[in-house]
Amino acid sequence: MTQLKNLDFLLQERYRTLRKAEMVAVLKIQDQLIHSIRKFLRKKGFVEILAPIIGPVTDPGIRGAKQVSFSYYGTEFKVMSSMILYKQMVVAAIPKVFSISPNIRLEPPETVDTKRHLTEFRQVDLEQAFSSYDNVMRLAEKMYCKVIEETKVKCRRELELLKRKIETPSRPFRRYSYKEAVEIVNSLGFDVKYGEELNWKAEEAISKIHREPFWIVDYPITARGFYYLEHPETPGILRDFDLLYPEGYGEAISGGERETRYLKVVERIKRGGEDPIKYGWYLKMLKNGIPPSAGFGIGVERLTRYVCGLENIWDAVPFPKVAGIASP
Ligand code: AMP
Ligand code: MG
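A: This is the predicted complex of the input protein with adenosine monophosphate.
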């Protein structure tokens, strides 16, 4: 386990570490990454919208993390764990949208050890109406390569200071099915059962044996949120994906095509052990009809951690919030 006490102390004294040359370089690189992403997406016709921060419901598909609830004038409200449900609302009006969306997830304390989990983080979260998952994967590849290329040039000095060499990968990125990924991690000594998510260690291990980012596609329905669409010809398998960084940095992106049919979603919510009544406004919206869409979210701090070659994600954000530590 990471020396929690030491980490607690370091995070309490953020006003000191924030002034270090390495930290300043990281923040400048982060600024460039955000700038390049915005520029790329705008050029592709995406419109940036303001993300919601609170609401009656939020994304339930957050792998063991807890949502934050509070009373909003007597009604139970949530702090956004992701804006997925809202992205589906807005693509009915603007077919290509994105946000730099803040998310809160009370991750279990042991996630400190993964070095890639924060409890407050941001996603560049985008959605495109009438798009296939293949289409948004290609978009993600282009965006990723463009952003890396630009950042390498604009932040040459900062990357040198951090002693980080980073290559722009070739496209298309390698693709594994979820089934193949499970076989790979199990051949590395893990025991992931078909139908489960890859656990944190397994995700890190498969990431470590790669030199370039790669996709894992077509997760089983048991591993993911209710809003992903099933393959019509292979029920039980979703039209979704994760992008993983190489070198052991783990997951970069999750996304996929959306299930928009009211009755299907109600059934999936129930199967996930939740009461559909909680999703009032969302289900009403589906009944009313929304366009099919696909999209993804890329974690900004994880991207920064990878590009800067940082061991710990808490060095990839100015004011880190880590599970179990009450820091500024
Ligand atoms: P998810 O909806 O869990 O797939 O999250 C979407 C993206 O957000 C992931 O692919 C990560 O890049 C990022 N992310 C998710 N959870 C965290 C976390 N606890 N800390 C930092 N980044 C995260
Ligand atoms: Mg994910």
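The mean pLDDT is 96. Residues 242, 251, 254 surround magnesium ion (ligand 2) (CB under 6 Å).
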